[in-house]
Amino acid sequence: MTQNEFVGEFNNLTTLLNSFAYKLTKNSEDAKDLYQETAFRAMSNRDKFRAGTNLKAWLFTIMKNIFINNYRKKVKSKTILDNTDNLYYLNSGGVTIENEADSNILIKELKDMIELLDESTRIPFMMHYQGFKYQEIADHLGLPLGTVKSRIFFARKDLKTQIASQYGKLRETY
Predict the structure, then answer these.
(1) What range(s) does the RNA polymerase sigma factor 70 region 4 type domain occupy (predicted)?
(2) Alpha-carbon span 140 to 49, nearest angstrom
(3) Is 89 inside any structural domain?
(4) In a domain, 82, yes or no
(5) Is the pLDDT of residue 3 over 90?
């Protein structure tokens, strides 16, 4: 395959490569960088492509491998290596104790708000919160599926109203 043919085929796959890059990175700027790196590697390694094989698959593999390697580099860059004799750097951090009083109070108040819900909405809501699927709740309670969904919706709506009335003033202060 000549260089002009290779570049022509590559250009035909540009849209697909950009889409795949965005799918991998979930960020348009990172996707552009990934596409450029793929284009550079494909052009510089054009001689390694065997004519008659699938160019699209070859390019996608290059892109996927670049993405994986970059991801691994990011993960490794966050790793702390301490080569000192007594692990001075790892042991030098102070012990941090978090005060969870605020979150504990909010959780307790939220549980109290849930307890104030009508039993017909509270039970399906709590079952859904605990991980039951809508159909499982409907079967367990002997209710139609639509009724279960409605009751969970109304429980959420009531909780939002209670939270807004309780904490609505706090939003304005921040």
Answers:
(1) 109-159
(2) 60
(3) no
(4) no
(5) no
Range of the domain at 158: 102-169
Closest CA to 42 of 76, 23, 17: 17
In sequence order, what are the residues at sequence separation of 6 or more whose Cβ sits closer than 8 angstroms to the Cβ of residue 85?
none
- Least reliable range by pLDDT among 20-24, 106-110, 124-128, 140-144: 106-110
Domain count, the chain: 2
Reduced to 3 states, what is the DSSP secondary structure of residue 173?
Answer: helix
Q: Is 25 within 8 Å of 18 (Cβ atoms)?
A: no
Amino acid, single-letter form, for residue 136: E
**Residues near 98 by Cβ (< 8 Å), separated by ≥ 6?**
none
Residue 102 CB neighbour total at 10 angstroms:
8
Does 8 reside within a domain? yes
Give the Cα separation of 12 and 9 in Å (integer): 5
Q: Is residue 41 part of a domain?
A: yes
User: What is the tens place of the pLDDT at every residue in 118-160?
Assistant: 999 999 999 999 999 999 999 999 999 999 999 999 999 999 9
User: What distance lies between CA 35 and its chain's CA centroid?
Assistant: 22
Residues 66 and 32 in one domain: yes
